[in-house]
Amino acid sequence: MDDLLQTALSGEWQAAIAAFAVYLSAERALSPLTVTAYRNDLTSFAAYVGNSPGIVTVSMIRHYLGQLMERGLSRRTTARKMSALRVFYRFQVRTAGLQGSPAAAVKAPRLGARLPTFLYVEEMNHLLAAPDVSTPLGKRDRALLEFLYASGVRIAECVALEVADIRVSTGAVRVIGKGNRERIVLYGGAAQLALRTYLEHARPLLARGDESALFVNRRGTRLTDRSVRRMIDHHVQQAAVGKHVTPHTFRHSFATHLLEGGADLRVVQELLGHQSLSSTQIYTHTAKEHLLRVYEATHPRA
């Protein structure tokens, strides 16, 4: 959200949003990107209603959601903004003495089930082969893409990794996930080889002497998630993959391919770092759709 919009808010709103951001970061251990998204959603709402957080009513929130829909925002985006308001007003009830949350009685728009985008194995292989591994940056890109696909880690988890977190010889890495929860993630032989090549022959040429990050940029400092997105876009174009691919596409593909290969749902849940099995079950629908397409395309009496 623009800094100009933030500074245009009343002092009461600014203080409330700042305290809420501290709570999200310190108590709920949310990532900086998630905290920023909450701040942006609240700043947008505060600019719309004006005045004070304490005078907001149910009808104000409903009208705000209606305005968002009229502006053409998707149901998913509108639901996300409603979720931010619910969390914020629960925090206000707890800390600012509000008698009740005006967001509690407002229902977010219903969302249709949305299956995650994933790449087929052939598409993934084309993408993984796209980096020019004759250069240090190409070796880095190959290692990063192989690792994202082999481990299923979130992009924030990936760029936060330190060299000390990874054990190339055993194919294991210590990851700090959502809610500051630690888990051990495994990755296979192709990623091990790509990482070993990067660590031995590319990272020493790229990294500054005191940099501890596993993946570094051309300036020798920690790679950011935005840089990874740009890098993926570049290689998607090179590989002529006809889909919109994001870092999360690697995570979706990882889970889908594991389940298609016969992996137990509980194992995939553990590897993804999902607290709830229901978060993992969406991938079973994706896998079934793929199996149906393969059956219909290959069985003589399908």
Describe the structure.
With 302 residues, the protein is mostly helical. It folds into two domains: 3-95, DNA polymerase, domain 1, CATH 1.10.150; 121-298, Intergrase catalytic core (hpI Integrase, Chain A, Orthogonal Bundle). It has helices at 3-7, 11-26, 32-49, 58-70, 75-95, 121-128, 136-151, 155-159, 189-201, 203-206, 225-239, 247-260, 265-272, 277-298; strands at 166-167, 172-176, 182-186. The model is unreliable at 1-7 (pLDDT under 50).
Instruction: Report helical residue fraction.
Output: 55-70%
CATH class of the largest domain: Mainly Alpha
Order of helices and strands: HHHHHHHHEEEHHHHHH
As for the number of domains, it is 2
The major beta sheet can be summarized as: 3 strands, antiparallel
Topology, element by element:
Elements (H helix, E strand, L loop, with lengths): L2 H5 L3 H16 L5 H18 L8 H13 L4 H21 L25 H8 L7 H16 L3 H5 L6 E2 L4 E5 L5 E5 L2 H13 L1 H4 L18 H15 L7 H14 L4 H8 L4 H22 L4
Antiparallel strand pairs: 1-2, 2-3
Helix pairs in contact: 2-3, 3-5, 7-9, 7-12, 12-14, 13-14
